[in-house]
Amino acid sequence: MEVPILKQGRYLIATIQAALSDEDLLHLRRALLERVIQFRSRGVVVDVTALDVMDSFASRTLRDITYMIRLRGADTVIVGIQPEVAFAMVQLGLTLEGVATALDLEEGLAHLEQRARSSS
Amino acid sequence: MVNKKPANVPQPPSTQSTELLRELVAHLREHRTQLREEWASRITEAQLLTAMTKDEIFAEATSVYDNYVEALATGTLEALQSYSRNLSERIIPRGVETHEVVGIVLLLRDVLARSLFAKYQGDFTKLNRILDAYEPAANRIANTVAVGFVQERERVIRQQQEAIRELSTPVLQVRERLLILPIIGVIDPQRARQLTEQLLRGIRTNRAKVVVIDITGVAAMDATVANHLVQTVEASRLLGATVIVTGLSPEIALTIVNIGVDLGKMNTVGDLQGGIEQAERLLGYKVIPAAEANAAA
Known about the structure:
The structure holds two protein chains of two kinds. Helices cover 48% and strands 18% of the residues of chain A. Chain A has four helices and five strands, in the order E-E-H-E-H-E-H-E-H. Chain A has one domain (5-119): Transcription Regulator spoIIAA (2-Layer Sandwich), CATH 3.30.750.24. Chain A is globular. Chain B has eleven helices and five strands, in the order ααααααββαβαβαβαα. Chain B starts with 12 loop residues before the first helix and ends with a helix. Helix content of chain B is 67%, strand content 9%. Residues 1-12 of chain B have low confidence and may be disordered. Chains A and B meet through helix 3 and helix 4 of A and helix 7 and helix 8 of B.
């Protein structure tokens, strides 16, 4: 299942709508990188509200996406992790270190705005 | 001889004991007043149910007696079960203890057995058969009443534990997007789990950005709980909230250093005031005295 990637000004918004296979995740990674380059985006929001599980591959891929996008000079923020998912992840040791997180899409965009302001 | 049942063909035991029980029930109904009074006086004598007045004991004794006989007559325990639940509900708040309930039911059994002895003392075979029918039924009844009482008590205890747990971990909003979570008392793994759940849910519903967890009121903490605290902090971060832990006692600080829990990921501030001040800074608030603000304006 493909993840839709929306362009909103200088930001990209990817909303994951159902559980993703490993292949889907790799596809998302490539697609996001291409779009960031194509649109010269400043930030990316990945919305995982719909996910009720996050395995180690998914969280590692999300971290990789964040790092790769940072290498292109843009920020990534993961939003909408459910409380139960968050605690399960922590217990599995998947803490998304170095990755920005926010409560929901609105918060995520606010975070990116703030980053943009502080860097300019 | 034809229409009389031959003696060497035994009737099925159930019919036989049913018949005996019927006779027994008739006897108990007939002597209701006397047996009931005797039972009530035995209860008073044994100093059971001291929390209740004599009249109350007599009134309860009457309805227990009737229910008891009813259970013997019908062989079903449901009515008695619901009655004993109901009774327990009424008497538990008055401080009636388990041994008293068991005691009075056993007393009733004894009183009734005595009266059976008195009635059939001339005919030992009959007495034996009556007792064979009576004893299992009576024991089942005693069991039902006692179990009903204990279950009711356990239900009350569970309810209270639930209430205490709910009360023990309030998640409070002090400012827009700032929550505090004061923890007081001992944290066991179960409470720690519940605390985490409430906090994470609170972060979502209040859209919190900063949380101050104050553990001034926690005297000690073992490795499991300390680890759990670290996990809670990390999980909160995944929801986009920053956690500040305040009020670590020297003992807890020592435990944490000794067991090597990684507190590097944690934001700690000495006391609650300092924690709230830092939280306000993170949220972009600046608290100044009104006089100063007026002078600046």
